[in-house]
Amino acid sequence: MVSKDNGTLNARLADFGLAKNFADAGLSQISSEHEIKGTLSYIAPKQIVNCRFTEPTADIFSVGATMYTLISGETIYNLSDHETPIATILNDGPIPLRERAPKVSRSVSTIVDKALAIDPENRFQSAEQMRHAIEKLLRIT
Fold first, then answer.
1. pLDDT tens by residue, 74-106
2. At what angle do helices 56-72 and 106-115 cross, to 10 degrees?
3. CA proximity to 28, closest of 3, 52, 62, 44
4. CA–CA separation, 134 vs 140, rounded Å?
5. Domain ranges of the chain
6. Is 81 in contact with 18 (CB distance < 8 Å)?
């Protein structure tokens, strides 16, 4: 995470709550087959289904969810209205960014919404790919 304070850039490392101490984890099968690891509003749907086989595109989803919250001030789902948040996440998917933040440019919402695609194949396939899309947007604006 990067912030600016009195003209100085500050960087902080964030692990989104998933880092583990290997000594405490027992060094075997760090995550069980039917465990959910992470905060529901920030983890990819496929990660909910099976966190042991999470792919790099799940990290793209988490970054997109974080960007969404920073931009809109809200999380990507309406979980408070439902009794079964996991079903909402798996069946309904994220609310498009412009529904929560209508003044956000279409270019920004396209990047965030692509990062939050339910199907991992429709997301950016790497952090580098997402970075290039953001850099291109910054050059245009």
1. 999 987 766 688 888 888 889 999 999 999 999
2. 140
3. 52
4. 10
5. 40-140
6. no
CATH superfamily of 40-140: Transferase(Phosphotransferase) domain 1 (1.10.510.10)
Type of residue found at 84 = T
CA distance 101 to 97: 6
Contact yes or no for 89/40 (Cβ under 8 A): yes
Please report the pLDDT score of residue 14 as a whole number.
64
Identify the three-state secondary structure at position 33: coil
What residues in the chain have per-residue pLDDT under 50? 19-33
Quote the CA–CA distance of 77 and 116 in Å, as a whole number. 11
Structure tokens at 83: 């009794």
Question: In the chain, where does DSSP find H-type helix?
Answer: 22-25, 45-49, 56-72, 85-92, 97-100, 106-115, 127-140
